[in-house]
Amino acid sequence: MKWMVIILALLLGFGFAQELPAPPGKKSTISTGERLDYRMYLGFFTVGKGTTTVDNSYHTKNNRKCYKVDAYMQTLGIATWISKVNDNWGAYVDTSELVTHESYRKLSEGTYRLNELITYDHEKDQASVIVADKKTGKYGEPKVYSTPDKVRDIVSGFMYLRIIDFSKYKLRDTITVSGFFEDKTYRFKIIYHGKETIETELGKIPCYKLIPIMPDNQLFRGENSVTAWISADGNQIPIKVDAKMFIGHAGTEITGFRGLRNQFVVVR
Question: Domain limits of the chain?
Answer without folding.
Answer: 2-258
